[in-house]
Structures are given as structure tokens and as C-alpha cells.
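Summary for the lay section of the report: proteins are chains of building blocks that fold into shapes. Here we show the chain for protein-glutamine gamma-glutamyltransferase and then a coded description of the shape we predicted for it.
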Amino acid sequence: VFPDTSLRVTGVDFLKRQNTQQHHTDGYNIQSLVVRRGQPFQVQVSLSRELRAADKLTLRFAIGESPMKNRGSLLSLKPERENFNGWKISMVERNDKGCLLSVTSSPNAPVGKYNLHVKTGSNIYKPENGVIYLLFNPWCEDDVVYMANEAEKEEYVLNDTGCIYVGSAYNIYDRPWNFGQYEEFILDACMYLLDKSQLSLDERRDPACVSRAMSALVNSNDDNGVLLGNWSGNYVSGTSPMDWIGSVTILQKYYKTKKPVRYGQCWVFAGVLNTVMRCLGVPCRCVSTFDSAHDTEENLRVDVYLNDKGEKLNSLSFDSVWNFHVWNDAWMKRTDIPNGFSGWQAIDSTPQEQSQGRFQCGPCPVKAVKEGDVYLPYDAKFVYAEVNADRVYWLVRKVNGKDKYFKVGTETQAIGKNISTKAVGQNRRVDITQEYKYPEGSREERMSMERAYSFIRPSGLMPRSGYASTRQTVGSNTQPLVPEEPATKTGLHLEIANTEPLHPGNPLEMAITVKISAPGNWTIELIGSCQLQNYTGKVQANLGTVKETINLEGPSEMQIPLKIAPDAYMKTLSSVEDEVLILVTAIAEVKETNDKLTKDTSMRFEYPPITVQMPETAKLYNDFNCALIFKNKLNVTLENCKLLVEGLGIFKMTTFEQGDIMPGRIMKSEIICTPTRLGEKKIIAKLISNQIKGISTEKGIFITE
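The coded shape description reads as follows.
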């Protein structure tokens, strides 16, 4: 009997440590090898004997259910041989024990999970943990997601924490958020979403297709995706959208149950989509727009209806202006549309409107929004309207028992303000409005607007409420193309501000300033109202109104106070599940000239801070203490307080029940943290109670060897 001299593989070493460092994938908490496309990685193949010239050695990479060569889902690669589908293998070194091979995948290879088998003659070796995860590669110049700037890649691909900007244009604040793309099961959850998307192998090569599919799958509409949206104010059967501080718990829960997680609102959808895109290797950022239009009819107009006390009415509006809306920008070269539209692309997973029959949005080139090229795919008209619609105010009055509409103002510059994202490498807000829009009133803006209007037909100026029979046509001309403040003969101007800090439990003290610049004696009728509303613009309570007739000798100004007692709003504040904003609306009319002007401003309540006490540095696997301290400086008891704490790589997400915190009382919680990863880490904490829906804080610590 001849000894068996056929060549066999006795082992495969994926050289995980060296490969993942070179591929910037060493953060992923997973057994398998994770690498990026278009960049070489090495594998050490151990053999039963020395490799001879006549031996046949083949590496087979297979992706999907039934891999086939002719479909490109089975790649059969021989060292130093032809390049197969853009992949190639070279021999780095060989000895009597085996060989070291270098594998370079194609820079446009389909992204996903590949199984590696090694074939020698008729023997096939299936290594343990033989799955390789292949991601997009922003470090590779031939990959369409290539990003040249190192600091930007560090932020938009590798950073697993960040913050999302919310509030109102009047006071923007940040909510810290843990993206957590490296945590356990997160990459597997993203791979599950890729499989669930049923993208073809070719579509998996293209980040435009992948990001569009992910924008659909992060919401649960149509496809049982990750998150169920809920804006009803009732979250008993799930987690309130205010109670999340990161994406990790959400994606882990989804991966485990394969059922939609309850509940999300826009910043939660954006936080999760950001995690998914960064996890797959596409540079991505969360983008917040203040006073964002949700224009259901794509006519670039949002109607706001007020009663004769100046209070906003919910019932008539189909469209709405959200105090803020958060979506994402993903970075890529677009190969499916004409040149000049590469770079940031807006994608949005909040289910607002259907696109091609599904709740998905984007990728829409940010440049197309800026230039008014709203015919480009995908959903450019919708995104354009979100940042460029006009706001028209209508006063609804009963005349002979029927509702009549009177136009009391048009704002052409009020929508799409302070477009914000986190700065690269720093914890501060950076304003990116100029990436989405030309300066208000500039020649370029006007040209961009004319271009957009040639693709979107704005309707005539009439109110668009549900009561068609009572419509009063106010001239059927389309919008004037000159974007400027409505010119008033008297130079009438309104300002709204708070005169004292807006602390829950205190009176809300605000003022409406009426200014007039034309000389002369003027009589001004002013009505003002104060309401509580959700960030989506839905009114929760009417708190009070003011009505004054004032005489001004122009040019001059006068301040009219508006004061709301705590009893008027505290009950609503503690009974609603959402964070609410204070909306003040003012309508002024100059009797002598019939000049009318309407203005509204949303403000948020101000809260005492949470402070975090912990060392600035700590050693790997060495416990350290962290204290979270909160002093209730308000005049009200905070009921049913919960403290949420999470620190990626140092502390697992935990909720601490804190009961009620009386005025003047101090809450102190101590936790013990164990760092399991090196580098800059963060503790994120959030306090929630019936009265306050979220005080957040974050603090960094540096972990060393």
C-alpha cells in the first residue's frame, strides 16, 4: 500500500490580529475575521507536506444560499493565477509546513458574509470559524465610499459614540447617543438586515442600493424592520422613544427576537441607521434640521391654521412643521446618476412618506438639494421641501356659521434652519446649512429655486384644509420667486423671547416685542398665545393668550409680557409621555395700513444638570468608580425617576429606579465600571421622570494598557 502523499490542508490561520488592525476592524466584538474590500489580507495555510509545482491549491469564497460560479457568488482563486471577478491571491512565502497567502478582494465586491474553503486536489478543507465578513472600504481609493480625510473617517466610520441635535431653532441642545457598531451581535444584526433586504448580489456592491434598503429596514413599516414608530404619546406596550440612549439595546433585541422593537421617533431611527451604515463601512452622520417641513403634497408649502386667539389648530393641518427632524447623510460616489452629485447623500429611515411603494428615503444627493436638481433619484423633491418649503399662516374665523380663511402671513425663510451635525473629532455642533442651501436671498439661491420650481408645481395660494366647500381662494397666482420677508409698509417686526429661565414648576415668563420702523402714529392689534406642543408640531395644551391694542410713535418698540402660571401647564407636563416644547405665536395687525405679520417661536424647558465624577484615565480590566449626581433645583418633586447609564466598553446599559426626588434633594448613584477596551471611552447617562423627559450628560475617560 502506497503512503498517502496527496496534499492536505491541516489548518488555516486567519491572522486576525494583524489583518483587523490593517483594515481598521479590530474594534468588532466577533469571533470571525472582519475585513474591508479592495485591500489585501493574509491567511496562513498549514499543509500536510511541502507544496510542489504540480499541486493544485484553490481558495473558494462563497456568499449566499446556493453559491454558483456563473452567478459570481462562488469565487475560486488560485495563487498567482488570473484575477477572478477582480479578486486575486498571491503567495507571500512558503516552506515545508505550508504557505502564507495574500488575498485582495475586488474594491466593488458584494458586501456580506463569505465562507472560505480550501481545496487541494480532490480534498476540501473547511476551517473552523471559516466565515469572513467583508465590508465597504473608505480607505480604498477604488471603493466608491472612499473618503480621503483621515479625521473624517475616524469620526464618520470608526466613532461609536456621538450626539444628536434636538430642541428648537431657538435653543438647540445635544442628546448623547451610543452608536455601538462594534458591540456583540451588532454586525450580525446588520448582516441579517442585508439578507432580509433581498438585494441581489450586484446591488450589494453599491452603497446607494444598500443605504436605500437599510433606510427601509430600520423602520418596521412594510418589512418587519427594526423599529416601530410611535408618536401617539402612549408607549405603555414598549419603551418610550425618550428612554433610549443608544442603538445597541435596540439592534441586539431585534436580532434576538427578529421582531420590531417598540418604539422609535426620528432621532432613534437616525441613531440606528447611523449605526448600521458605519457598521457596514459606509461613512455616515446624523443630520438635524430645525423647523423641518413635512410637506405631504410636494407643493413646497406648509399651511398653519390659527384661531382668532392666535392658537394653532391641530385638526386642519395635513402638513406639519417639525421643530426638528433628524436624518442621515451617507458618503459615496454615485455611479447611477450624472457626474457632480457624489459626496454626502441624505437617507432617512423615519417612516413619513412612501417612496416606490415602501417607507424608504434616499439616497438623495445633498448637492442636488442645493442646486434644485430635484428630479434626481431618490426622493429629492421630498428632501428639498423639508428644507425649503414656505410657511403660510391662515386665521380661521366663523363668518355666518362657516369657517373662512384669512391669510395673515407668509414666511419664505423659516423652514430648514440651523442644519446641524456633530463636528469631526470634537463634541460640538457644526452648522452645515450651506451644504444644503445657498445663502438666503442670494442670486444662486434664486436660480436653484427656479430650477426646483420647474420640477415641482407649487399650487395656488389657497388654504388646504379638509373642508373644501369653505375654501376662500386668495388669488391663484403661484408663489413669488423672490424669497424675502413680506414687505410691510410700516416695517412691522415681531420678536419672541423668554425673560426668565423656563424651569418646570416656575411661572413661564415671556415677552412679545412689537417694533415699527416707519415714522408716524400707529395703532397695532396684537394677539399672542402660548401652547405646549410635541416636536412634530402637534399641540398638547393651550396655556394662555394675550390681546392688546397698542399705540406706537414710530420708529419705536414695545414689549408685551406673556406670563403663564405653573398650574396652567404642570399637569400636562407630567401626564404626557413625550418631551414638550413651549410654542408662542403672535399675530400683529397695523390698523391704519392693514399690514399683518405672524411669528412663532418654540422654546424648551431648562433643567438642572447631572454631573459625572470619575477618573480621567483608567487601566484595562481595572475597575474604577463612577458617581452620578443630580440636585433637584426645581420647585417641583420629580416623580418616578429613572437613571439610564451606558458606557461602551466600560459599562453595560442599566436602568436604575430612583423613585421621587423632592425639591432641593440630591440623588447620588455610584457604579463600578470595568474597562474591556482601550482608548477614549464614554459614560452616557440620562434622567427621566414624569415631569422631565430627559436630562442627558456624557463624560469621557481614557483607557490605557
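Put simply, here is one thing we learned. Residues 610-703 form a domain with the Immunoglobulin-like fold (CATH 2.60.40.10).
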